[in-house]
Amino acid sequence: MSKRLNLISNHLGQNLTEHFSKSNLKTPYIQDPIDFLYLDDLLPPDLNNKRKQLREALEANLAPYVAEWYDKAQFPLDIAEKLRPLKIFGISEEKYGCRKVCPLEKSLIIYELARIDASLATFYGLTLSLVVFTIEKLGSEEQKAKYLPKLCNLDIIASWGLTEPDYGSDASSLETTATPVKGGYILNGVKRWLGNAIISDIMVIFARNTITKNVEGFIMDSRAQGVSVTNINRKLALRIVQNGNVFMKDVFVPENERLEKGHTFATGANVVLDHSRMTLAWLVAGLVGGTYEHSVKYLRERTQFRAPLAAFQLNQEKLVRILAIYQAVFLLAWRATTLLVKGQGNIAQASLVKGWSSYMGREATRLGREIMGGNGILIDNFAMKALVDMEVAYTYEGTYDVNVLVAGRAATGVPAFKAGFKA
């Protein structure tokens, strides 16, 4: 044995090594990080019980398949059959044949899904926080009765289209047009990064009215004449979600499929973004929580130098940094959601929480990958998958930089979005 290995062995102590070999460190259960500061005391007991029941169901019915779906960049076509029994889809009140899912319950569902896989959480958030919320908030009574029950029962799949090839952060400058004609509108343009695009039955599309110049919303049949979709392949993150490019060439959308409310970007699309952005911190919390649990398991079970990796001080320091980040992200997400429920939530709060959480989430998932060494790059060990998925969380629903500027505007009263240079 080398001098260095002797030094390490002597530092740990032979008796300590023997103790570790006899102790039961390869346990199937690792303490939930939520328990460390008893954060579940902040949750209503009924919702916390639902959260725990959902966790058990996800572990049994979805977790075993995630690695294969992710490896193949494959969206499970039987996802409706797997998710429908969980009864996790709904709207803000029990109506239109839909169950009620309050903002905190929806957030906790996203959290638990992300703990298994961020793509599944994204699918859920896309369906509820974007499509369902858009129709519930901006749609007519007829549109709500027509679409909400089908969406909440996963009888139909939907996608949500705002981003374009040339307009991401500057989404309000979109170029897709809606030209009024007899009986409806003609849509022309291209949308990019639409989740579920190739499997969707309907699409919520935001386009600029050629007469009023305002950005308005429309519910478009994905199979309407003039609609074509291509999948965005070769993604390195959120591989289970199928994102697509949507091309619209003289697509007719009936008048009754125009969203009744929110006929400007500020009162329409941006209201939806503010709502969905608030839930993204919960996705980050799920990714960090999953990273922590897998890291603890790995440190307890992996033996080097005749001792578990958990016995080394540097590893414990990294693990506790992940744990601390988790506590902070959870508390921020919980507080922001609580304010939202009270009617005190605003865009600056959502941007602060989403931006900072994803910023620190990158650090937490990087540390998890680091703890596992070479084994950390394997899909089954969660860490690298969480790391690359966190990179997406860092940039979607408003990049970190844009979110910081939204919060900065609220803090200073001075907007700083546009550069002085004009092309």
TrEMBL record:
Segments forming domain Acyl-CoA oxidase/dehydrogenase middle: 161-251
Organism of this sequence: Blepharisma stoltei
Gene Ontology MF terms in the entry: acyl-CoA dehydrogenase activity; flavin adenine dinucleotide binding
Necessary cofactors: FAD
Record key words, sorted: FAD, Flavoprotein, Oxidoreductase
Domain Acyl-CoA dehydrogenase/oxidase N-terminal: residue ranges: 50-153
Protein name: Acyl-CoA oxidase
PROSITE patterns per the UniProt record, alphabetical: ACYL_COA_DH_2
Family in the record: Belongs to the acyl-CoA dehydrogenase family.
Pfam families: Acyl-CoA_dh_1, Acyl-CoA_dh_M, Acyl-CoA_dh_N
BP GO annotations: fatty acid beta-oxidation
GO CC, any one term: peroxisome
SUPFAM superfamilies from the UniProt entry: Acyl-CoA dehydrogenase C-terminal domain-like (SSF47203), Acyl-CoA dehydrogenase NM domain-like (SSF56645)
Origin: domain of life: Eukaryota
Signal peptide: none
